[in-house]
């Protein structure tokens, strides 16, 4: 039911998002639909200044027979499905899970604005769901990273969390964790493939970075420490790369990961029915309302007047 609701909501709202970044995404979707794969990729690089391969491959295929807004609606429905199965896996109270996917500001950003990040999130959620099945987990990690390089931050946090175990095993037994070793090799490959993308993002955002923009990240960090209980050291290690990335690229562009880490821990306390989850759900529900209002009135969810 939630998938159908988001699908319908997307068909209603997405066509009205015509400004901001979507101005470029729409133009790109139209242009690549009539080009060969290589020609389309060159135009994709030119129009979006992006080198991420998964998003391009998807729009190159689907732009040939689907209207962009229909494509986005289906993508959002899949995102909701994979999010819900992960929430069910950690036994989140079902009505709360539905409220989250229908009202959360950060999810609305993924639904309607952060298009490339959306597909990175889809594959990230799949990797998270299959994290115990190594042969399935690794391909989804690769797809997530090549869908959006920013997911290197969250996977770095996961690997960094395991660093203490790696060091301990290495010095006591001479053993290296295969998962962490794989991550560092994969991170090296991704950085080589997407180094232009990463460097251009840093240059683009450097002048606008404000250290005070980190306040949300530190709130999510504090809440994660509170709700992680016996896993506080894990939360600490996950947040170290997040805080460093927020300082380098700007808090507003990385806060979404801090929020999801906080929710991962908080939603496992009393099935998510606790003050931290409820308070942030209310706050980001109000933010989502204003985000949609901006789309309807100005064609841009981030319109600032």
User: What's the tally of helices?
Assistant: 17
Residue ranges: pLDDT <50 for 5 or more in a row?
none
Total number of β-strand segments? 0
- What is the radius of gyration? 19 Å
H and E string: HHHHHHHHHHHHHHHHH
- Outline the biggest β-sheet: none
Query: Helix/strand-derived class?
Result: mainly alpha
Write down the overall geometry.
Answer: globular
Give the overall average pLDDT. 85
Spatial separation of the terminal alpha carbons? 36 Å
Content of β-strand: under 5%
What is the helix content? over 70%
Give a quick summary of the entry:
The chain has helices spanning 2-13, 21-32, 37-48, 53-62, 68-89, 94-103, 105-112, 115-129, 134-147, 151-161, 163-173, 178-193, 195-206, 215-228, 232-249, 251-266, 275-298. It is mostly helical.
Describe the structure.
- The protein is mainly alpha-helical and 305 residues long.
- It has a domain at 1-148.
- It is built from 17 helices and no strands.
- It has helices at residues 2-13, 21-32, 37-48, 53-62, 68-89, 94-103, 105-112, 115-129, 134-147, 151-161, 163-173, 178-193, 195-206, 215-228, 232-249, 251-266, 275-298.
- It is globular and about 55 Å long.
Main features:
305 residues; mainly alpha; 17 helices; globular
Per-chain topology:
Elements: H1 2-13, H2 21-32, H3 37-48, H4 53-62, H5 68-89, H6 94-103, H7 105-112, H8 115-129, H9 134-147, H10 151-161, H11 163-173, H12 178-193, H13 195-206, H14 215-228, H15 232-249, H16 251-266, H17 275-298
């Amino acid at each position: 039911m939630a998938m159908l609701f988001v699908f319908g909501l997307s068909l209603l709202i997405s066509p009205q998002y015509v400004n901001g970044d979507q101005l470029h995404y729409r133009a790109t979707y139209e242009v690549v639909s009539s080009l060969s794969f290589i020609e389309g990729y060159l135009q994709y690089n030119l129009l979006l200044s992006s080198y991420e391969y998964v998003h391009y491959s998807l729009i190159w295929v689907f732009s040939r027979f689907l209207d962009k807004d229909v494509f986005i609606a289906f993508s959002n429905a899949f995102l909701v499905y994979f999010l819900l199965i992960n929430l069910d896996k950690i036994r989140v109270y079902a009505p709360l899970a539905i409220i989250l996917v229908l009202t959360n500001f950060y999810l609305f950003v993924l639904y309607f604005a952060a298009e490339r990040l959306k597909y990175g999130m889809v594959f990230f959620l799949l990797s998270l769901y299959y994290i115990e099945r190594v042969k399935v987990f690794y391909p989804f990690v690769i797809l997530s990273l090549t869908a959006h390089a920013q997911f290197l931050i969250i996977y770095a946090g996961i690997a960094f969390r395991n660093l203490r175990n790696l060091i301990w095993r290495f010095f006591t037994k001479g053993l290296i964790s295969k998962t962490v070793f794989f991550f560092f090799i994969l991170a090296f490959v991704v950085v080589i493939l997407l180094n232009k993308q990463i460097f251009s993002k840093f240059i683009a955002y450097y002048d606008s970075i404000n250290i005070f923009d980190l306040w949300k990240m530190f709130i999510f960090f504090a809440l994660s420490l509170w709700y992680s209980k016996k896993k506080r050291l894990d939360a600490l290690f996950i947040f170290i790369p997040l805080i460093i990335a927020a300082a380098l690229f700007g808090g507003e562009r990385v806060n979404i990961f801090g929020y999801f880490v906080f929710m991962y821990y908080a939603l496992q306390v009393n099935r998510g029915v606790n003050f931290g989850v409820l308070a942030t759900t209310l706050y980001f529900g109000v933010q989502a309302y204003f985000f949609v209002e901006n789309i309807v009135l100005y064609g841009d969810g981030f319109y600032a007047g």
